[in-house]
Every structure is written in C-alpha cells, then in structure tokens.
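Re: folding output
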Amino acid sequence: MTASGVVLETELAGAKLFKRGKVRDVYDLGDQLLIVATDRISAFDVVIPTGIPSKGAVLTQISAFWFEKMTDLTPTHLVSADTDRITQMHPVLKTHRAVLAGRSMLARKTEVVPIECVVRGYLAGSGWKEYQKSQSVCGVLLPAGLKEAQELPEPIFTPATKEESGHDINISEVEMAKRVGADLTTALRETSLAVYSRARDYARSKGIIIADTKFEFGRFNGEPMLIDELLTPDSSRFWPVEEYAPGRSPVSFDKQFVRDYLEGLSWDKTPPAPALPEEIVRKTSAKYLQALAVLTGRGLS
C-alpha cells in the first residue's frame, strides 16, 4: 500500500502467494483462494506504474454483486466478499484486514478451463474490425450493412484462448470443442449467453449498455463453475445509454482515459510503461466509481 492508500502490491504474511496477475494477487489458502484486486491498471497488456485509487475495490464489489445475481443460473466460485467473514474463516488474515477490506474475495479452488468465454451483443472493438473485412466475427456470419457499435440481432458466443502474456487469440466453437470437449463447449456457451442476457437487461435498466464481456470458468467436482471477475469495467465494455448511437464508439466506463492518453505519446507499448498524470488518474478513478454506483445503487463499502 502506498502513502496515498493506493494498493499496488500485497504481501500477506502467513498466506502463500499463488499468482500475481496484471491486477489481482491470488493467495492459496488450502481448498480456497483469496483473490485481492489491487489498484494496478494495465493497458495494451502492459502494467502501468501508476495506480488508480479505489479501482480494486470497485472491481471486487461489482463482481460480488453480479455473482450473487447469477446463482440460479450457474454455480460460482464466490464464498464471500465480506472482509469480516473472510478473516473469521482464516484468522491468519486478521492482521491484514486494512489491506483486504473491500477488495478481496474468498473463492473455491477450481480446475480452470483454458478458454475465455466472450459474448458480444454489439459490434465493437476487434469484432468491428473483423466484420469490416469478412462480414463475420470469429466465424459467425452476420447481416450485411451493420454499423460500428450497432446492436447485433442476437448475442453471439466467440471464445478465445487464455494467454499468460500478450493478447488472447479468437477461436471458433469448433476449435474450442477440440480443446475442451463438445459437451463442455455447449454448456459454457449456454451459460455465458444466459448470464450475459440477464446482465444486459439489468444494466440497460440502470442506464448502462454492456456491449460485450468475457467470462471465465473452472470445474469444481467435475462441474462447470463461473470464476474470476464478473461483468466489471475491466472484463466488459460498458457504454452509457444516453451517449449511445450506432456508427461511433461511445466513451466507456473503464480505462479509456488511460488508453487515449497513452495513444497520444510516443510510447511503443512495450515495458516499461510511462507514469500517468494526476488528471488522467482522477478521471479514470471517477469512471470506475460511477460504474459501481450506477449498477449497484451504492458506493464503496
């Protein structure tokens, strides 16, 4: 934790560090994992040296909100996002309560399925670029004449590989089935589309369009289970309804301020990344906090 309260990296004495990702520090607690979302931010697959205040807490609390909303559709790995309960279940963590508060989840340990389950409801990002060339996205043929950011006739499932470094690679359902099996592919597609559809309708009622998102799954006792983060500004493309119009890409509730700033520099998008100025940090933090407030109706807890 820095002097400003921004958590860039955690060291929890008594807990075994399992993995340090771009944003999350994951600890092995036996048959459970402790997932701590730091305030790190990445852009173009590079971690930025400047943290975004409250970002980790926002990601954790949005994820927990969605996990609880989807329990009738699919099992999830969430055990608890309540810091008091987490420290009661694992007393070794009590001395770290200040760092963990609001930004940590206790989760079941699963066998991770090595596929990003992407659902697209609107034509944006890499999907828009591919559509312009082939009128398809990840092998899914779409109607002619669609505009950038236009809503698709129905959401499409477009899986991708999970890469430890660099960009994930889009693959077809056929390729996914070769890698993880046809039955699991069907189950994950159906669950992904159901979760997305529920989230899309709820978010739209609150003034947010979820243009696309990615889900991760693990297997627990052999059965698929929704894991990792869920429907956050880091894993999804959120657009404000009031600014939406087909034909252009709306401003997102995410790290777009960071991307736009970095695109204006001469940085070659390889490490080390440049630090961010205070204005960009402040605007980005405000966007994350706005997403939490709009979706959940409450601020940070």
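--- second protein (sequence, then structure) ---
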Amino acid sequence: MVNLEELSVRGLRAYEVGRLRAALRVVLVLAPAVVLCALEARTREACICVGVLLLSLSVWLRWRDRDGSEAVSTGLWAGGIPYSLGLALERFGVHCGSAELAAYCWGFSGLFGLGAGAIVAAREARQRARASGVAVAAAIAILAATLGCLRLGVASVVAVAVGTAIGVAIRRRPA
C-alpha cells in the first residue's frame, strides 16, 4: 500500500526542485557577463558585488513566481543594450572621469538608459504587468547595465539609472 503522506512530500519536493532548476538557468546567461566585467582589474570588486546581487536577485525572482520570471527576462533584455554599449565605449577608451569626455559620456549613457527604460515599459505594458513588475524589471535592467558601465565610471552608471527611470516614466504615462 502506498503511503499518501510520503507520496505527497516526495511530489512537493520534486516540484520545488524543478522550480529551482528552472530558476537557475539564468546563471548560464549572467555568469559570462559577470566574468567579463570582473576581468577589469580596477572594477573587479564592484563587478563581483553587482554580479552576485544580480545573480541572486534574478534566481530568487525567477523561483518565486511567473511574474518575477517575466520581470527578470524583461530586465535582462533591456539591460543588455547599455551593458553591450558600455563595454564597447570602454574599448574605445572612453572614461567618464575625464573632464573632456564627461558630457559625451553622460549623454550616451543617459540615452542608453532611456532606451532600456522604454523597452521595459513597452514589454511590461504588453504583459499587462503591475507597477511592481515594472519596477523590478527596471531594477534588473539597471543592475545588468551597471555591469557594462562600471568600467566607464560611476557617472555612467548614474546616467544609465536616471535614463532608465525617465524612459519608464515617459513610456508608462497614460495617453
């Protein structure tokens, strides 16, 4: 005879393990991004700190529920643009700490952030998400963008965060 209580416990355990495995898939995407950021000697500690925060928050949100999983996906898509462009600007020798490039750096970083915010707002509006989902997706986008923009300097990270917030606010405004 089958013990129903034991069967129920085993079923629940299998369900939770499956949810955790699905949530951990995001590590395959984020781990290379964190490693690439951490290769730079001057920003290694900050990259690791932001990377661990982004990884743990992404896994937890994806494990928690479907809305969290969608918000993480949206945030990573949106944050991937400033991440990539931040790495590209760094390859051209741009650093936001220098006075002659500060205005350009703020402008480009803010523009990248504005685009990320518009993507977050557009994708979340299509999914009819609540304001909390938009905020979570924007936070994930900012953290992902920070990994690419840390090499440029703190001013770039701030500009991307401000641009993302403005992009979300403009795009979500009712017509």
